[in-house]
């Protein structure tokens, strides 16, 4: 879990300044009424962080907890499109720092505990998948080379 935590911390710190430099007009632009703006993608990453924090904690003391969420409803109800981008970025960075701390403090044997999301998975697999998911969306927001995410 240490290497996943270190990787996550590096990714967040590497991209934070670039995210801050994107103009508000670009962050708010919706490619179509049914697609998320860059701001909403960041909001989705906030929601993902919140749900994964819960998974990483609850799975350490409950047997195979069931923790899922409807990503579209979370973005819609949170209404990230109306948020100030700076506030979303501060929250995103803080939540990811919390995840880094949780992963670093996790006893090694806990990585093998199960948590049910859309499928049964270990905490270790979920942590690794979380970083892949994060990179995928960061590359979308920053217009970097696409990172394929299943």
Structure description:
The protein is mainly alpha-helical and 150 residues long. The protein has a single domain, classed as Up-down Bundle (Four Helix Bundle (Hemerythrin (Met), subunit A)). 62% of the residues lie in helices and 4% in strands. A hairpin with a 3-residue loop joins strand 1 and strand 2.
| CATH H-level superfamily title | dinb family like domain
Number of domains: 1
Helices and strands: which structural class?
A: mainly alpha
Overall 3D geometry? globular
Q: How many beta strands in the DSSP annotation?
A: 2
Which stretches of 5+ consecutive residues score pLDDT under 50? none
Q: Report the CATH topology name.
A: Four Helix Bundle (Hemerythrin (Met), subunit A)
Mean pLDDT: 95
Q: What is the helix tally?
A: 6
The succession of helices and strands, N to C, reads: HHHHHEEH
The description of the largest β-sheet is: 2 strands, antiparallel
CA-to-CA gap between the ends? Answer: 22 Å
Tell me the Rg in angstroms: 15 Å
User: In percent terms, what proportion of residues is strand?
Assistant: under 5%
The CATH architecture category equals: Up-down Bundle
Q: Can you tell me the CATH class?
A: Mainly Alpha
Secondary structure: helix percent = 55-70%
Question: What order do the strands of the largest sheet run in, or round the barrel if closed?
Answer: 1-2
């Amino acid at each position: 879990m240490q290497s996943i935590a270190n990787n996550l911390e590096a990714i967040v710190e590497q991209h934070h300044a670039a995210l801050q430099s994107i103009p508000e007009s670009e962050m708010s632009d919706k490619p179509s009424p049914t697609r998320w703006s860059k701001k909403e993608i960041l909001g989705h990453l906030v929601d993902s962080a919140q749900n994964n924090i819960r998974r990483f904690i609850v799975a350490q003391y409950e047997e195979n907890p069931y923790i899922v969420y409807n990503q579209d409803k979370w973005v819609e109800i949170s209404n990230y499109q109306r948020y100030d981008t700076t506030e979303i970025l501060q929250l995103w960075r803080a939540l990811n720092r919390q995840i880094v701390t949780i992963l670093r403090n996790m006893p090694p044997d806990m990585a093998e505990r199960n948590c049910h999301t859309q499928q049964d998975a270990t905490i270790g697999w979920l942590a690794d998948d979380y970083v892949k998911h994060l990179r995928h969306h960061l590359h979308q927001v920053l217009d970097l080379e696409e990172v394929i995410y299943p």
